[in-house]
Amino acid sequence: MTARFFWIGILVVALLGATCGWGLAQETLTPGGKRFLKEAASINVMEMQLGRLARERGEDPEVKEFGEQLEMDHGNAKDDLQKVAAANNVKLPPQVERKHAGLLARLTKLSGGEFDRTFVQAMIRSHKKSVARFKKANRRLDDEDLKAWSLHYLPILQEHLDHARSLAQKLGRH
Predict the structure, then answer these.
(1) Which of 23, 29, 51, 113 meets the CB 3.0–4.6 Å disulfide criterion with 33?
(2) Of the candidates 167, 151, 161, 102, which has an alpha carbon nearest to the alpha carbon of residue 128?
(3) What is the DSSP letter of 59?
(4) Mean pLDDT over residues 116-140, rounded?
(5) What is the pTM for the complete model shown?
(6) CATH code of residue 145
(7) Which part of the chain is the DUF4142 domain (predicted)?
(8) Residue 9 within a domain
């Protein structure tokens, strides 16, 4: 009789564990998905910081406005990406990766028109790379939430690239 209650108890615990998942997030991302998620998070942090620099150091009002837009859009993207990361039990990097820190350091030393031109060229390069990464990721991602996030933000990145190109043309005339 005691053995019977023991096995019933084991069965109940197993069923409860299977139905409630013990409250733990399950990892479903492939290594490539995790890499993309972490890289996108780092890029968002960098773009937010660059946007703030543009507001503070830019000379042209349109560069300052673009900086505000970058800060807002990449802040929203970061918040939304954090939800995807949490659902997949992935910890995101809290700061800019070392490979992006050099650009921030270089731009911090500039101001006025020189900052504007250097910043806009950096935004063109950065957003070209990001658009290409997102397009590639969209073809390969298996996780539906991460893919939906990427598909949602790809047009925004393209818009940033177009805006940076437009600013480069304008600044080239001065």
Answers:
(1) 29
(2) 161
(3) -
(4) 96
(5) 0.81
(6) 1.20.1260.10
(7) 34-167
(8) no
